[in-house]
Amino acid sequence: MPVNIIVCVKQILDPEIPSRDFRVDAEQREAVRGAANLVTNIFCENALETALQLKEKSGGKITVISYGADSTEDALRKALAMKADAAIHILNDGQAHPDPLSVAQVLAAAIRKLGEFDVVMLGRESGDWGVGQTAGLLAEELGVAAVAFVDKVEIGADGLQLKRQTDVGYERVAATMPLVISITNDEHNVPRIPKTRDVMMSFRQPLTKWTLEDLGVNAAEVRAGNHYYAVVDLFIPVQELNCEFVDGDTLEARVEKFAQRIIEVTGSM
Amino acid sequence: MNDVIISLFASAGYDRAAQGVAGAGRRLAADCGAQLHAVIIGAPDAAMKAAVAAVADAVTIADIGDYQTEICLSALTQICKTLAPQAVLLSNDFYSQELAPRLAHRLGGSAVADGLALNLVEGKVRVNRSVYGGKAMATIELQRSPAVVWLRARAFDPAPLRPEATTAIQPATLDLPTRVSTTIIERKVEAGDEARLEDAKVIVSGGRGLGSPEPFNELQKLANILGAQMAASRAACDAGWVPPSWQVGQTGKKVAPGLYLAVAIHGASQHLAGISDAKNIAAINIDKDAPIFKQCRFGIVEDYRKVVPLLIARLNALKK
Question: Which domain holds residue B245?
Answer without folding.
Answer: 197-319
